[in-house]
Amino acid sequence: MSSIKEYLSEDHGRCDELFAIMEDAAAKSIESAKEAYDEFAKNTERHFQMEERVMFLEFEQKTGMTQGPTAIMRHEHIQMRNLLEEMRKAIEAKDKDKFFGNSETLMILMQQHNMKEEQMLYTMAQQHLSADAERIIDMMNSMIVE
């Protein structure tokens, strides 16, 4: 069984791969990017939900820290959701420049966000939640986002 840190870090990698596929599709044709965008957005939202509805709550209950790193990560999730929405609108409007402007901002924010999670929050979570890691990972695995 992997650790919470390994599990969520691997999911970051999957989302990063889908991001690259989406950008490649948009570079070829903004019209053809919708399917790749939908796949990326769905998987990214699932990742956010796994954190917000499972791991963050477990961490906060165990540590009592509700206004610390999880609050910052939730705020960044909101920023990334807003950028994803702007990218969706750009695809609908067939506005390649707007799409890539927002995707570039999203990429920078994701890189910084993922680094903070992987180097700080996931490490802290692993320290506090390792005894419950299998149960928490099972709960995250069962998440379905439509």
Note the main attributes of this structure.
84% helix; Four Helix Bundle (Hemerythrin (Met), subunit A); Hemerythrin HHE cation binding region; 146 residues; Hemerythrin-like; mainly alpha; 0% strand
CATH architecture annotation name = Up-down Bundle
Q: How large is the radius of gyration?
A: 16 Å
CATH topology: Four Helix Bundle (Hemerythrin (Met), subunit A)
Which range best describes the helical content: under 10%, 10-25%, 25-40%, 40-55%, 55-70% or over 70%?
Answer: over 70%
| Residue windows where pLDDT falls under 50 for at least 5 positions | none
Taken together, the total number of domains comes to 1
CATH classification class = Mainly Alpha
Which of globular, elongated, flat, extended, rod-shaped describes the shape? elongated
Relative strand content: under 5%
Average pLDDT number = 94
Helix-strand pattern: HHHHH
Number of helices: 5
Q: Determine the N-to-C terminus distance.
A: 27 Å
Largest sheet: none
Number of strands: 0
Indicate the structural class: mainly alpha
Organism: Sulfurimonas denitrificans (strain ATCC 33889 / DSM 1251) (Thiomicrospira denitrificans (strain ATCC 33889 / DSM 1251))
Protein name: Hemerythrin HHE cation binding region
InterPro entries: Hemerythrin-like
